[in-house]
Amino acid sequence: MSVELIIIIAVLLLIVILFNSLIAKRNAVNNAFAGIDAYLKKRYDLIPNLVAAVQKYMEHERGLLNEITELRSRAISGNISDSERVELDNKISRALGAINIAVENYPDLKANTNFLQLQASLNEVEEQLSAARRAYNAAVNSYNNAVQMFPTNLVAMIMGFKARPFFEASEAERQNVNVKNLFNS
Known about the structure:
This protein has helices spanning 3-55, 62-76, 82-103, 107-111, 113-148, 152-159, 171-174, 179-182. The protein is mainly alpha-helical. It has one domain (3-165): LemA-like domain (de novo design (two linked rop proteins), Up-down Bundle). The protein starts with a helix and ends with a helix.
């Protein structure tokens, strides 16, 4: 075998290894996003029960309950992109937080066993969702490093691999909740 042939085979082998590495990292990102989806489904399944449990107590927050029901319907419709899903998730998180704040005004509701069980289940799902988001962001970080760092960036550029966005809190979620204006809508 000639030296040129050995070099060509070595370069092709390196390209295949780098390409497979990119594929594995992209699949890890997709898998992590699917994990988020699974926890979102669990959350969406709890929302109707939560709304049913609180609506007879929360007369003044009817708009909030309607909003969370509408957001859930849009989220489970299946006709949304990943970025729209993230945006809806952020809105639902804010609305669920608002319900938790509003509960403080209803002592009877805070003592309701069914509501307490739902709240515990929802808190558990929220913790799992948070962990899934961290896993997703770790996978995205690894993938983006591979897409942007030499030598895998050369293969990524040729094969059309693009950096993926991190799962980030919206600007509104980074702000403190204005409890005073929360229920005036």
